């Protein structure tokens, strides 16, 4: 599968919001035209606030959107740690999305049970005999370089047997979570990584340098 990398450096949050939402609009409408549905994976961090500011300007058939979570904390939806809870606050009522369009975890289960349950929920939208192929994953990055709940040095980096994996010893609280695994992330039609702030600058520099070296080899 051919991989195309496009790195965009923007001056401020307003430009990031505009660029991000423009890309989401294009990918969403392309997916809807081709597949009559748009399947997007969401992350937390700075992304919900950016989408809350910009998605209201997007022109799309909102009824065709299905919103999944790249990772989620196994906490009540009312908790400030719940990624769905944050999106519910920021997006529902701000754009024409309903709660039913979000594919949510069952917060009453253990992480292991929640991961298995989420795979079953995903299987409604993806063929069960092959890797899910999202139209778009919106991904963040921590200062340590982690994305989703895949942390440096953690055994889940090597997980290839399941779509969704549980984690009960997350280095970043809360400890109990579920996360997409790398095979699913790498199979997406498009991934947009959003990274803002000086705390991530050094890690981004390392990633960009490694990416350039890899491109030179190929």
* Number of distinct helices: 6
Described by the principal axes of the CA atoms, the overall outline is: globular
- Structure summary, number of beta strands: 7
Give helix and strand order, one letter per element, not per position: HEHEEHHEEEHEH
Strand content: 5-15%
Strand order of the largest sheet: 2-1-4-7
Span of the ends, CA to CA: 13 Å
**pLDDT averaged over residues:** 94
Task: Please tell me about this protein's structure.
This protein is an alpha/beta fold and 218 residues long. Helix content is 34%, strand content 13%. The protein is built from six helices and seven strands. The chain has helices at residues 13-35, 47-54, 83-91, 111-122, 182-187, 201-217; strands at residues 38-42, 65-69, 71-73, 136-139, 164-167, 177-180, 191-193. The strands form two sheets. Strands 2-1-4-7 form a four-stranded parallel sheet. Strands 3-6-5 form a three-stranded antiparallel sheet. The longest helix is centred in the N-terminal third of the chain and has 23 residues, at 13-35. It is globular, with a radius of gyration of 17 Å. The two termini are 13 Å apart. The mean pLDDT is 94.
Describe the structure concisely for a colleague.
Helices cover 34% and strands 13% of the residues.
